[in-house]
Design brief:
15 helices, seven-stranded mixed β-sheet, two-stranded parallel ribbon, alpha+beta, 2 domains
Amino acid sequence: METQPTLTFPVIRGLQARREYYVAMWSLRMLRQISIFDEDELPPELRAQRTLNKARIPEISGYMLDNPDDYVFSALTVSIDSDVAFEPLPGQDKLGLLRVPMDARFIINDGQHRRAAIIEALEQRPELGHETIAVVFFLDIGLERCQQMFADLNRHAIRPSRSLGLLYDHRNDKARLAKLVVMKSDFFRDIVDMEKSSLAKRSRKLFTLSAFHNACADLINGLATGDLTEDANTARTYWEAVAERFPAWRQVLEGRLPASEVREGYIHSHGIALQALGLAGNTLLKNHPKDWKKRLESLQKIDWSRGNTKLWEGRAMIGGRISKVTTNVILTTNVIKKALSVPLDSEQLRVETAHGR
């Protein structure tokens, strides 16, 4: 009687919800060699996974190729649609070999984009094939259970806020710049929320790190020297000079005025104004490198009150609510640029003309 050919690899056996499962370390090369059941052609109700979003793959593989010394991938979760045999090693209960028939179907419950990206990266860097990734295997559990696993695995997978992602990102130069400006500034350190991407009504902060990141990136665009410390000092000097023109910011910092009251009453305490101040500041620093601080005094001539609907409705607000879309950022920037007597660029002129019509 012929023995059916099997794929054999070492695993650790575990127990979860009264079901056995296995954890293995697979080489990245194995991800390419092992056939994964392709569900893309099936209707949603017969699939155990969403269809592959191919647009995500180059981004993930690029991350791996750009960071070969410190990339990190979490474990893949895979179902094996077949009977398997676990053979404990001598004297062991949980360590052993898993024997899987060669014709078994492997179905990815979590990690299909990671696998596809790894395979794409190996095309360019085959030497990475000997590196490993953890794989968690569940057994012959059927479509309904696979679909439930997908729902359960993603039910509590909450994406971190953009601010927290920027705070923990040490590869993004613009994120590093914004963090350095905040950390080095006695003023902004206490009014920028480093974790949240939207502020609660009673928050004591005025801005989020994600908003400050956008503003810093626009401010330093075309002015960056490549020296992070020097660029951060330039940005910090500008932002602290801007802060001097908004007494309400100082009152929030000193606890004399609730941040919520300032945000409710004024445009200048929202992310759209911060980004607009960054865009306008970029032109100001380029055109007036020596007297830009004096020109900032004109910021106080702008009526920043949200009640000034004649100015802000259709610019920073739509229907009385702050709008962060690109057109509104540009229209808000135009108000600031006109006050500072610096020219609008061609795109800003186009948007202003359209707004006027």
